[in-house]
Amino acid sequence: FFYILFTSLAIYDHITSTLLHPNFPISDPLVKSKRKTSRNPQEKDEERSFPDQNLQEEGEYVLDSAPPPLTLAQKLGLVASPAPGLTEGEWRQVKARSIQQGESGQPCAICREEFLLQPQVLLSCSHVFHKTCLQAFERFSRRKCCPMCRKEQYETRVIHDAAQLFRHKCATRIQAYWRGYATRKRFAILRKYSSPQDKHQRRKFFEEKLQELNDSFVRYCHTDTEAFLRDINHSLSSSRRVFQQLERKCVSEPQESDWQRIQSQVIQRDVWDCPICLTALCSPGLPAEAETSQPPRGRRLVLLSCSHLFHQPCLEAFEAFSIQTRPPCPLCRSAYHKKRI
């Protein structure tokens, strides 16, 4: 009788200590929650700061490293004793299996969010979750089983694989952006100073270069347009005077024999109309034109050294209306000497 009673008490103790959630005892579920509120706030701060320090150190550690004490039923052999904790080598195998499955690269199976830099835990069944998500799952389910494979009495280990993957992804993205920026900047420099091979692109390149030169010239030029135009007119007038002086030096006044030769050239050309007024010409020393055209009387003729013949009033009017001090011939635009005939 005493053995049966002792065995019953041992099994009851095992059920109350292991199968039920420690935060919800049978006697009074609110007693422990009330006791939690009466703890010192300084102790809470110490408990909160402990995981943060380990997270900053990037070290892995087992959360439930200390196994619970054996119950009386487990000591008597009535209930199987829990398996011993995983060794460091076994944890490495579990982690390798988790990496092979890509658990850290996938979202958390509880909240369906990425791990990013938040602390994560690895279970002995090779599944990975947020640390806070697993704690909330255990608190609301009132049992300790994996949310994925429903394995009970698992061990948890804090890891930082997802944080390392996130940092690697961020570094890769930053490097890609920086390389893209450096490449675009170098391409812009090459495009600015090197002409492309394509025909249309090359034409556009030189058009842009010419436009840049024009803009720079206009930018550094004097902004007074009227003064700029006056300088151009002054330069043109100076150039004309120089050319006129050269023509005067080159053209000498013909002699009497030269005038006879020029007059014979006029007769050979056989043109008897004034190039200015387009009327018939007549000279006492020259043969008359055909009988069909009767030249007007009383208008004297002028023979130029370039062998062109004009009415004297027409040539004088042309010289009066010309802006040059010594205008050229109306036909050949050369400097001349004139002789009345």
From TrEMBL:
GO molecular function annotations of the record: zinc ion binding
Entry-linked SMART domains: RING
Renumbered residue ranges of the record's region Disordered: 30-54
PROSITE patterns documented for this protein: IQ, ZF_RING_2
Ranges of residues in domain RING-type: 108-150, 274-333
Compositional bias of kind Basic and acidic residues: 41-50
Highest taxon of the lineage: Eukaryota
Keywords associated with the record: Metal-binding, Zinc, Zinc-finger
A Pfam family matched in the record: zf-RING_2
Name of this chain's protein: Ring finger protein 32
Source organism: Takifugu rubripes (Japanese pufferfish)
